[in-house]
Structure formats: C-alpha cells, structure tokens
Specification:
By secondary structure, the chain is of the alpha+beta class. It has helices spanning 2-26, 42-59, 73-85, 105-122, 134-148, 186-191, 194-219, 233-254, 266-270, 283-303, 306-338, 343-376; strands spanning 31-37, 63-69, 95-98, 101-104, 276-277, 281-282.
Amino acid sequence: MTRRIFIAAALLFALLFMSTRSVVAQTEPVVRAVLFYSPTCPHCELVITQTLPPLIEKYGDQLQIIGINVAEQQGSNYFLAALDKFQIQEGGVPFLVIGDKYLIGSGDIPDQLPGLVETYLSQGGVDWPDIPGLREAIAATDATQQASAPTTEPAQESAPTVAPVSPEESAPPAFALPENPVELTWQQKFAQDPAGNTLSVIVLLGMFWAVLFSIYQFQQRKEGDDKGKWQMLIPILCILGFGVAGYLAYVETTHVAAVCGPVGDCNTVQQSEYASLFGVLPIGVMGLAGYVAIMISWLTAKYTKGKIADFATLSMFGMGIFGTLFSIYLTFLEPFVIGATCAWCLTSAILITILMLLSMPPAMATFHKLRQPQTSSTPRP
C-alpha cells in the first residue's frame, strides 16, 4: 500500500514538473528582428553566414529573424518604409531592425546585435519591428503555414535554419543567400539606376577623350608650358580629392551607410565586391594615397630644382594618367556590372582627370627639356 502511494506521488510530481516546465517554456522571452539584404551584397553575405548562425544556435527559438530581399519589389517597399520610420533619407544593406533600433553594415551588426539580443531578452523580449504592413504580412504567412502544415506526421524538433524569405512568401522566417542567384544582363543592371548610370556613361566618355587628347598632345612633340597659368589649381583639386577619397575610405572601412546625393546609389556601389582591390585594399584608401602622392609631387616640383623637380613633374603626370585609367575601369563597372552609380566616385574620377590634364603641359615641357641634351650632343660632320 505504501509502495502504491509512493508511486502515485512520484507520478503526480512528474506531471506537475512537466506542466510547470511547459508553462515556463511558453513564457520564455522572444526577440524578433528583421534583416534587409541583397543577394549581391558581400557585406550581407558576411552577416548572414558568419554573424547570425552562432546567435541563432545560441538562443534557438528565443531569437527569430526574418530576411527581406530588397532586390524584390515588395522587399524594397518594406525597406523604404523602414527608412522612413527612422527618418533616414538613404540607407544601404545589410540593414537590421530590432525593436526601436537599427544597425547598418557588417561592422555595426556583429558588434552590437549580441548585446541588443541580451538586453531585450532581459526586458522580456521584443516583437517584430513596427514597420507598416510587416507584422500583418508575417501573421498572414504564419497562418498560411499552419493551414498548409500536415497533421498526420509528428513534429520534429530541429535547430533554427537560415534561408532568405520575403514576408509574403510562405516559408519559415530564417536566413541564407540563394544558391543560384539570377544573373541580370547589363541592360537590366543599367535600368536599375538609369539617371545615375547615364551620368556615369557621360563621365566615362569624357575621361576617354581626356586620355586620347593627352596621347595626341605627346605625339605632336610640343614643348608644353613648364609654368602654366592653371597650375595653382592642382593643390586645390588635391585637397578636394583628399576629402572625397577620405569620406569613401571612411565608409568602406567602417561599413556605415554613405550619404548620397539625388542621383545614383552610393551604398550599392560601396557594398559591392569592387569597393576593394583584390578584396583587401579599399578603393577609397587607395585614392586617398594617390591624392597625397600627387600633392607631394607638386610641392616637390614647385620648390626644388634639377633632376628631383623633373622627376616629380613627370611622376605627377604619370600618377594622373594611372588614376584616370583606373577611374575609367571603376566607372565602367558602375552602370554595366554593378548596376548603380556612386556620385562620390564620379566626383573623384572627374578630379583625377582634371589633375591629369593640368599636369600634362609641365610634363611635356620637362620631357622636351630632357631630350634636348641628347639632340645637341650629336657631333657635327
């Protein structure tokens, strides 16, 4: 009799424990967030493949993140609504919204998201961001999934997965880049930013003309002007270029959203794989070093004499030629490969082209002067 009472008491305790555990599990705080991404954005891939998986594995069902592809029309609409919510005129991806806060770039998201998750969990969790239409779309998606879910098979427990979805799609909210993203033609890429890309083509043609004009001038073997009335513009243009390249270097190294003008999409360009040379050296840093080098060459040519001044003059023109050719390459990529134009990049391209043209006359004069001794040293018959 005592044994039966003991067994009954043990069973009753087990049932009470399981019931209490179930209630606790149901009341666990949940943090929900939204990540806006583009399948062609390397910074998005970095966040999705390296930052999110460890967090999802650590928190399990307590962390729910839904991915919205801004390359799709509906995803773009939600993204614009999110920017409007935070009174941001222009923003780039990856753009993560959690509670009443937002994080931009592959720098801020890894640094701040873990702390925000802990903070919101300690406060009892946080619901989906209050972005117009988003919560309703997610609720409709959940209802669709529940209605279409099979009832004959038992539910299987599994770790949260990551796969990109749009709210209107009937798929679990999770993350991963598409395995086989659709490759757009150059015409489709150009059409993504017609005004900015048209401006890129105009600048591109102007740079081509400047290079061909420089080659023609040297072929004419003109002496050039070693002083030049426009030479004082060179340091001014270098300072302007230093400011433009410095800002681009800041955007590329800190992964923050760039402030863009009314034309173009700077953030798409800065978040592309072409924003760094060989995936290591940010283009902005490279441009920054180039403007500094041109400024040093100009100062050396102006305040020294002899071979040092001659070398500095020719070096200044050589760097101008190289910078213009490299800018032609980068400007070509914007409308035809990336599908977006960066106004800051175009400004830098124009500045380096003008610097090349201004440094050409003294370079021609120096080149002609260096050839004189070889001509005059020919023995007379």
